[in-house]
Known about the structure:
By secondary structure, the protein is α/β, with parallel strands linked by helices. The protein is 34% helix and 31% strand. Bound molecules: guanosine-5'-triphosphate. Guanosine-5'-triphosphate binds at residues 7, 9-15, 148-149.
Amino acid sequence: xxxxxxxxxxxxxxxxxxxxxxxxxxxxxxxxxxxCPEVREGGKRIGFKxxxxxxxxEKWLAKVGEGKIKVGKYAVQSEAGEIIDExxxxxxxxxxxxxxxxxxMEMSIPSLKDFINYAFSLNKPLIAVVHRSxxxxxxxxxxxxxxxxxxxxxxxxxVLQSL
Length: 163
Ligand SMILES: Nc1nc2c(ncn2[C@@H]2O[C@H](COP(=O)(O)OP(=O)(O)OP(=O)(O)O)[C@@H](O)[C@H]2O)c(=O)[nH]1
């Protein structure tokens, strides 16, 4: 089972994914993965964190400034590797893999690209937010203001049936 959620910025992709993650955890299943919230200062985006879903630990993924690997104006932070390694080592024990998000930024960071490819190779139930520009094989739900509430229970039930 692989479910992908996409849609325009701000439509509610992360909110829906985290709702499904919390509901699955409540039922005693182990969810392993990460999400990358943006960080704003004074209303301006200054970077992204990477947060482990199972442990809640977070580190800087990328922030405005100079660095070896840059994605647009953001420099990738080496400390992100601690979270990626932690999540990767927990993958074999996962009942569900959750990734937010699979996008141009994540795919241009070698360690994250490797992680995503490894996660796909495990053939475990997986739910992910994908950037609307990404081409990906699997069931894709395009979220809109109109369908996002209804899709919550539909997607949750689909995930639960695969566990
Ligand atoms: N009323 C309502 N608001 C929602 C719903 N889902 C998300 N929102 C709100 O919409 C805003 C954006 O939600 P996100 O989940 O961050 O949206 P997103 O698509 O992940 O945004 P990006 O990652 O920036 O593309 C937040 O303020 C949410 O509280 C929903 O189902 N109903």
